[in-house]
Every structure is written in structure tokens, then in C-alpha cells.
Amino acid sequence: MRRYLAPHLPATPLTRSLLAGLGAVLAVGLVGGLSLQVGTPLLMAPFGASCVLLFSVPGSPLSQPMHVVGGHLLSTLVALTLRLALPNEWWAVALAVGLAIALMAAFRVTHPPAGADPIVVFAADPGFSYLLTPVLAGSVSMVLIAVLYHRLTRTPYPMKPA
């Protein structure tokens, strides 16, 4: 039992932890403020989880811009399409999540927080404009803020292609 309680990541210096939290505060705050300025929501709950990856582990392949934007777009598109074709039932939500994950893997844009997008779509039942705002505009904004933030903190992001 003890081995399951052991930390799985190396210890993070306190400064690095605080910088990750500050990055998330700035990203969500700026995108939330921008939402008020443009008069349309640019935030959705899965973006909070995206911030974990963008600011805590910016070197992860799952944190890279194509994964963040592509994963959210693909997952939401799957959910919106299935929501049109299927009833708003638990099994349809499960199918949408599974299909979104399979397609993210197939298209090589896996972004774990985007796995929650179908749940949000089925719960809120938005129209296809949801794909543009908040999904596209919000995810692109989050990535741009992460790029600028990491340049200021001298953290490599995004990763350079191999």
C-alpha cells in the first residue's frame, strides 16, 4: 500500500510551484477580463485543467499549443455533432468522451483536459458557435498567454520540434 502513496513526480521548488500558480491566475484572469470586454464567454471549466499543464509542466507534449487548441477543438466538435444526433443521456455523454479521446489520439492532439469538453457540451447544450467562443478563442488566448508568460519567466515553451 505504501508504494501507492509515494510521490510520482520529483519535488518542485517552491518558487516554481508559485510561478505555476501565478501563471494560471494571470491566464484565467486575463481571459476572464477579455470575456467582459468582448461581451462573450471565453472561459470554460476544462481551461482550468489546461492551466495545470500549461504552467506546471510546460515541457510535456500534452501541454504544447497544437495539443491544447487541437484537443479542445476536436473534442468539442465531436460532442456538438453527437449532441445533434443523440439524446442527452448518460450513455451518449460516455460515447462522446470515448470518441473524443480516440480521435485526439488518432490525430495526435491528446490534451487530457479536453476529455471533459463533451461533458460540458452535453450539460450546457450550446450551439455550434460554442466551437468559436469559448473553445477556439479561449484556448488560443490561453496558449498565447502561456507563451508570453514563459518567455518572461525564461521557461522554454513551446517545445522545439525534434
UniProtKB/TrEMBL annotation:
Keywords attached to this entry: Membrane, Transmembrane, Transmembrane helix
InterPro entries noted in UniProt: HPP, TM_HPP
Entry-linked Pfam families: TM_HPP
Record bears the keyword NADP: no
Transmembrane segments: 64-82, 89-107, 127-149
Domain HPP transmembrane region, residue spans: 11-158
Designated name of the protein: HPP family protein
